[in-house]
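User: Continuing from earlier, I have the next pair ready.

Assistant: Great, send them over.

User: Here they are, in order.

Assistant: Folding the first of the pair now:
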Amino acid sequence: MTELIWDGKYKDGKKTAPVRISLPFQTIETINESAADRQKRLGSLFNQKQNPGEWRNRLIWGDKKYVLPSLLAEFAGKINLIYIDPPFNVGSDFSFTATIPDHPESEEDETTTFIKQPSIIEQKAYRDTWGRGLDSYLQWFYETVVVLRELLTEDGSIYIHLDWHIGHYAKIVMDEVFGYNNFLNNIVWCYKTRQFSKKYWNRKHDDILFYSKSDKWTFNWESVMSPLSESTIKKYKLVDEQGRKYRLSGRGITGSPIKSAKDVDAKWEITNPELVVRDFLRDGYPPEDWWLIDILNQVANERVEYATQKPETMLERIIKASSNEGDLVLDCFCGSGTTAAVAEKLNRRWITCDLGRFAIHTTRKRLLGITDVKPFVVQNLGKYERQQWVQAEFENPADRLEQERAYKKFICELYHAKALEGYTWLHGAKAGRMIHVGSVEAPVTVEDVKASILEFWKLIGKEKSAETNGIDFLGWDFAFEVNETAAQFAKSNKVDVKFKKIPREVLEKKAVDQGDIKFYELASLKVKTKIAKQQLTVTLENFIIPPDDVPEEVRGSITHWSQWIDYWSIDWNYKDDTFHNEWQSYRTKQNPKIDLTAYNHYEEKGKYTLLVKVIDILGNDTTKAITIEIA
């Protein structure tokens, strides 16, 4: 077989293998799980092997370079259908349209939109894909489909959605990985757009490559037949002994095929069966390899303002044809969540993932809009990905303390701070403020803040840089109560504290080398609670978000704090396991308003921890914990 060669495919005479780092998933949110199921699960992390009868669909935030190998341990040979819509246009990027909703107290519609540029980590992903042009794309594509093939069941199949830029190259790669004989179809999706060219034939189609893993695969052709026209149906006027409609056609009869019952009588049919064929009425025409499906226009109900969103009609056709109810469907380029949404509606299990935070948020909202959506979890690789990064970047297994010091020095330098030696809790200084660097393995806690403040006061007089009274806490994650409890402790000790997130971009060397890593302050959320008998009322009263990530010309459009909020949800009884989304309010295209008050009735008296999660218009989340007592 002819082989396609590109720069990077071989190293020292061997094919370059995909990354094989397998990391445990962290469940960060459970959605729509009943109280009874939650109680059964309490005290142990969800694991399909431990609870084989309790499947949870999975929405995973992370780089597929790590996500796909991490799925292999549990799902190798177990996924029935894969659909992917990878970036296939050298001009594609990760930008998205963010919407600033209307002022809630204004009578005029002041809704505005702006283009949110991709994050550094998304830019890095784009550079990895297209950095060396076609060569780097093909290597990236090859490594991806090698792992996808391992995930498929023996009778599974995969659909690859591409366009004219790259499709012919991708087919040769697919032939190599899946086998030339397992290529089943090149499906052509035809559509109409307003784009017009006088220089070449106008490009009005995409290609979808359809491959099986073996010589056996699922194809439910009856479920995807095209409907017959009324005029065709009317031609089937005869009825057989079983009540089935049919028409007659014949061989060797003048004027055949027979057009009606008048063309031949029953006697002729009986005495000459070899010349007459009963053509029975079918449910539709057999499916063809070209599909005329409209793209989503601006007013389509299913549109979620995601640039690469595909029509549900298309995914419905693919999922119906190539899977059965209860089968497992994977899409590792989640985007707007179309595959997951259609799989959910068709009673398939699903796993979907994406690198973009906004894609995960868009999909979560879309799934919540489905009536009786089954429970699903939101996962990431969290601290495990960070641990892997520390071990690779600061390799020194013989001395973990030295590795930890190197890591904290590195973060201080990224923050443009001077690293300090000889202290336990304070790791650097910048512009008269001290720096604490949080661990990769755990959130910054109230205890971390208190210990840092105590060490800070011991430091006064010893370090010139400690002459002011401020500490910046840099962390990957922060305990829920930090913004309140820790801030109050700091204030009572006359120390000004700021909490800033270490961005995930730090994990990417190219982003670090580019020198544009930004540490953003945590958003601040004010919540009011009121208890009457055993009913709790929760009201959002303020939300302050550092506007650094929003274009300056856009900030003036925000005239009320609630305009920053796109979504918020509540766990009414948080038990330090994972966030359980038990109530939510969010904006949609059909209903852009958001409720700022929520209610819950508690059946039993006692103390409860209330966890409130707010997601802003850029997809960033802020969480606040509140302790209440139902008396």
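And the other member of the pair:
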Amino acid sequence: MDEPETPAPDDSEPVGPADEKPEEKPENPEPEQPLTPSPVPTGPSTIKIDLPSATPSKPRVTVMKPKRNWKKILLVILALAAIAGLCYGAWKLGKHSNTPKPAATVRKTVTSKPKAAAKVQGLQLDPSKDYGNKYADGLLPVGDGKYSTSAPAAGTVYACSQYAQNLTSGQGGAQSRGLWFTDNNTEYDVNKKVHVNGSVMWQASFSNNVSDATRTIVTNDLPNHPTGVFPVAASDAAYAYDRNPNSIKGQTLSYSLPSNPTYGNPNCMGGQSGIMLTGVALFNAFDAGGRDAGAWEVQDACSGHPQKDGEYHYHTLSACIKDTNVRTVIGYALDGFPITGPQVAPGNILTTSDLDECHGITSQINLDGKLTTMYHYVMTQDFPYSVSCFRGQAIQPPGLPG
């Protein structure tokens, strides 16, 4: 129902003849004659007629304003407004009384469970621990024959059976034991070991790209640092111990590695461990005869040399890799897990005894520009130097073992 309108009060007044001048009475009025009274008009005003005394003339009309009781009018208006309001309220109430109320809206607050932190797998690095500098004097243990084909163990290489059959053939490697062997040939002094002379620069080609789940590394295997002169010259001091007849040749090597490898039980390995960011292949700790390659074979000043197909490679941590921090990735194993250096802090160096059976540990590393906590292998000064078994599924290496 619409609310009734309240009429505005009428302030207009009836108006008589404009500026009418009253007629003057004569000095000697005649006696009034009886007249029949005129009917009093009805309407909003009362008209009073003054009869002439003697001489007939126009009647004088006086307009009387009706008296208005403003208080009563105001009370009436208020009463009408109140009645209208009550009627409107009753109408609204009646209109909605039979309309079912909408069900209350229940807002579900979905509390997402916090993602569980990534499970830290494997032996963990303790950054606050002082691991010491066990081999500060340069005396390193000799690892001849330290491999197994049945199970992994710290300090040994878990060799696949087919690969292990070639380790006793005696083909390749150094011709004689160096003068740097000591302590009944159980140790060797790395500071006394000779190197292949020379400083040859190469045109290196290397790329490392990650796309989806794959890391693709392509290299010509020529290092970004100088090498010695190979084959080893007869005039070189190294020739007395290791007459490496091979020359360095560019390769075409492409590694398709998992960018997010899966940690699992140890897998056996062959002769190659991985690829380093210097562009150079990384082989395991042995020479072709199953002897400690770091102790027996003579490498150049950057710890590298070529095998029979001209593939330049390392067995040990290259002296030309300057950043050997445990957070710094310096290469990748064939299963995709990163390889880092051993230095926790100056004078605080990881060794084989600090690592698991595959020569790895879990810690925070700088992976592709981001700090990431994950399992990785560590290159150490001591045998077996690098990867000794694979925690993930390794690919078939594009190069050949040396």
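Worth noting for the second one:
Confidence is low (pLDDT under 50) at residues 1-57, 97-117. The first strand starts at residue 47 and ends at 50.
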